[in-house]
Structures are given as C-alpha cells and as structure tokens.
Design brief:
By secondary structure, the chain is an all-alpha fold. The protein has helices spanning 9-32, 43-57, 60-68, 73-94, 100-106. It starts with 8 loop residues before the first helix and ends with a helix.
C-alpha cells in the first residue's frame, strides 16, 4: 500500500534527490561501465547489477525529469563528484601519489 506523508515541497525535493535521483544517477553511471555478471559475483555485486537493470529499464525521460525538476539534483551530482575524488585521493595517497595523476592519465 501507499503511506502518505505530509511534508513541504522543499522537504519533498530534498528527500527525492537523496533517494530517487541518486539511485537513478548511480544506476546510469554504473550501467555506462558495461558491468556484466561473472561466475564469482558476490551478493553485493549482484545488487549492483540489479540496480543497473532496474534504473536503466526506466526511460531516460523519467531520469531526466528527476534531474530537471528537482532543484537539488545538481548538488547531488557535485557531492558525488567530490566524494569520488575524495575516495580515489585516499587510495592514491596510500600509494604516495597525488590525484593529479588521474588528470595526466585521462588526457
């Protein structure tokens, strides 16, 4: 069933961006990686593949709508990019490298 929850438009947009948009964004990003099942998949990876499958089964127009009509979506994208840089930076730091090495290898 459906459980109606009273909230402001601002709260709705924040919650939607932090749940639906981030889910669809990650599913689309991971889908773009071309991930495929393997004989040694973990439960976690199976969940990732299911996320990719379910989010990419929805139309791109639905995904675009989640982005376009929610003022918080760009903040989610910015936070995700920062988080990615932070995590990769920590990995590189363990190897005594700087994140600028990624910029060199991507050009």
């Amino acid at each position: 069933g459906c459980n109606m929850i009273s909230m402001s438009c601002k709260e709705h947009d924040e919650f939607t961006a932090n749940s639906q948009f981030i889910t669809h964004l990650m599913g689309r990003i991971l889908g773009a990686q071309g991930l495929k099942a393997t004989p040694i998949d973990t439960k976690g990876f199976q969940s990732v593949l299911k996320l990719v499958q379910t989010t990419n089964a929805d139309s791109f127009d639905l995904f675009y709508g989640l982005y376009k009509f929610n003022r918080n979506s760009m903040e989610i994208i910015k936070n995700l990019k920062k988080a990615m840089d932070d995590v990769v930076g920590k990995l590189l730091e363990k190897e005594g490298k700087n994140i600028s090495i990624l910029e060199e290898s991507c050009s």
